[in-house]
């Protein structure tokens, strides 16, 4: 029988790599906690209609990339292709708007898109999603941008760049859309096939086409920034001023339009020069129309999503994988000794130590080798003689220093063992 393979575009994150993921998660959690964001955990699948309405039918995500299926009850279900829509649905379903205040929420977990897998692009990938719901204030825009840069900086990432743009409000965009279509229509036949299609469906998306001829044509296109109303211009100016006050460098990129229909005003992306083709680590922006579009009240919002696979790639280029930390490794041999290790390990764990038992039953020599490789600081040795006496040998692996003591004495000196271990860790 042939082996069952993992699905294309999925990856197992193995234990050695998990330390990088835990580092990303704990760093993000710290930064978010200090800014008063609260974690929320919505489900991973939702009614297909949520994404169709919330992301937009004309986007690649909805049009080409969703994992949708009919469940046994005949409903159309979709594995979430991103987190924002589900989070907003949860915000509405649970009436989190009822207090009338601002909600700062975050979530991390997998998302699913049927895409061609390549480095930094998978079919199951992970996002860290951060949102502020309930504020129109440009300080909210600046706050989420600052949080994204803080997380990336706290992880030690360099050579990042931040692009920002304003896509204005609905009316600004409508005016701009008309100007853009008039400009592009004479070039219609020279545009790439996708862009020709978008000319009627979603013309703004043509601005971020990757096709070189289309890019050349787009260079001469009118700028969205020239079509902003006074209010939109004001908002954008304040965002820029405050970013400068915070010493956050940015570039204005008038072609940054994001793939999703619900964005208004600020749009931003953080790229890394060290990622090749999949350079965008973080994408975000304001979406003042989404809550209402999904059946909720009029609640403005802004947020971002960081792609954690891309971040993990950058961190692996940067970090050596930290050695596992283990306090004690227990080796044993003999009918009386082996059962005694279970209770010894358990008692030590209850005192707060990390303990691994060698379960192999192999010769002491082999067990000692594994003890060395385990990264443990101390090796506890139990033969039948010790088991009968109720004693144990403790060997500190870095110095080779060894002593025999009653097992009860070992447990009684937990405090001094802790001090010893802390000293050894520091050296
Ligand atoms: P791209 O242009 O790279 O396809 P996108 O505009 O589709 O990105 P968003 O919908 O803004 O991406 O998602 C936010 C972030 O999630 C991206 O910046 C990226 O880091 C990450 N991301 C998106 N799709 C994938 C994927 N298939 N695999 C891994 N990460 C992804
Ligand atoms: Mg994409």
UniProtKB/TrEMBL annotation:
EC number(s) from the headed UniProt entry: 6.1.1.21
Subcellular location: Cytoplasm
Keyword Lipoprotein found: no
GO biological process: histidyl-tRNA aminoacylation
Record key words, sorted: Aminoacyl-tRNA synthetase, ATP-binding, Cytoplasm, Ligase, Nucleotide-binding, Protein biosynthesis
Signal peptide interval: none
GO molecular function terms listed in the Swiss-Prot or TrEMBL record: ATP binding; histidine-tRNA ligase activity
Gene3D superfamilies: Anticodon-binding domain (3.40.50.800), Bira Bifunctional Protein, Domain 2 (3.30.930.10)
A Pfam cross-reference name: HGTP_anticodon
PROSITE patterns named among the record's database cross-references: AA_TRNA_LIGASE_II
Reaction catalyzed: tRNA(His) + L-histidine + ATP = L-histidyl-tRNA(His) + AMP + diphosphate + H(+)
Aminoacyl-tRNA synthetase recorded as keyword: yes
Primary localization: cytoplasm
Binding site for L-histidine: 82-84, 113, 127, 131, 258, 262-263
Residues in Aminoacyl-transfer RNA synthetases class-II family profile domain copies: 1-324
A cellular component annotation (GO) from this entry: cytoplasm
NCBIfam families: hisS
Family to which the UniProt record says this protein belongs: Belongs to the class-II aminoacyl-tRNA synthetase family.
Record text on subunit structure and interactions: Homodimer.
Protein name as it appears in the record: Histidine--tRNA ligase
Organism (species): Leptothoe spongobia TAU-MAC 1115
Lineage: Bacteria, Bacillati, Cyanobacteriota, Cyanophyceae, Nodosilineales
Gene field: hisS
